[in-house]
Each structure stands twice: as structure tokens, then as C-alpha cells.
Fold this protein.
Amino acid sequence: MFTGIIEEVGKVLNLTHSGSGIRITIEATKVLEDIEVGASIAVNGCCLTVTNFGDNWWSADAVPETMARTSLGSLTHQSLVNLERPVQAIGRLGGHIVQGHIDSTTPIINVENENDGSYKYTFELNDSWSRYICEKGSIAIDGISLTVAHVDDTSFAIAIIPHTWEVTNLSKKAPGDPVNIEVDVIAKYVERQLAYTKEKEEDHA
């Protein structure tokens, strides 16, 4: 489990394609402090398994299912990626519960500079997961735990404070760029429980 609090921004050193999958090698420092083969690291919000590592680098394989559901296929040599290790049981949950299981991708529609130095990012809203998005609700975008500031029928907006803009890869993103979306898992469980209860009630009606 992750929290959506990015530990560092890494750099893609190499991409090796294997059919519909890919092996990614990433330059990093912070997330390597207690690394071991088999460990999990979230890359732009995607939970990947460490298959190899060395001084200031590590590698992971992304299978076809991961490639189909995420924006990892848009990465190129030198791309910047958000990195986070799983939360420790003794640590603080500074963001929200993030599984590292991407639901979909969506493009950035617009980026606005606000007069206080913050930024407003607007994203396209997809019908397949729009029901999970609500104002003041949590969402993970490229692995970053963020709060929805506004939502309408076709889009939703996020307010980005200067610190988040500086320490994540959002500062390198532009309109049209795809981002990974993971909706709040609690909303999914609530929806499923309500649907299950309704099914049971109808069965006994």
C-alpha cells in the first residue's frame, strides 16, 4: 500500500520492449535506500516489482495488462517519473490509501497559473470512473495523492501547491499529456456493498 506522497522524481535510463510488455530501468537514489529484489515501488502510481538494481538504478517489468491500463507506454529515455516505496506500518499516512493499481489514464486539458503561485490542472473526466470523483474527494494522479477541487460533467480540476509542483513530475506535464488515474478504493467498496445489498433485497422481494 502507498500513500501518494512522492519520495523522489526518477529518470528513465532505458526501455526494453518484449512483445507488448516492457522492462524499465530508472535512475533513483532515495527509493534505493532499503531496496531488494522483489520489493515494490510505485512508478507514476503503478506498483511495479524490482527485478534488478545497482548503484543509483533499478529495473522492473511491466506486463501487457499494465501497459494497456497505464501511461507507461508513453515513457521515453530521460522521462521523469514519480517514485514512492510502500508505506511502513509504523509510518504516517500522509496522503490517502493508494494501492498502485491504475484504473485508467486521462489527458490534461489545461494548466493555469494562479496568482498565489499555485497551479490549477484540469483533466478529462471518463464515464467509466466519473462516479467515483467528487469535490474534496481523494484521487491519485501519477501516484500523487491529491484533492478534487472541482468536477463537472466532462472534467475535474486539481489545485497544485508550489511544493507539489516542484517535487513531482507535474511541472513537466503539459495539456494533452496522459496521466495515470487511481480512484479512491473506499468509494469502490462502498459502491460494491450497496450494490450487493440491493441485489439481496431484490432476491428476497
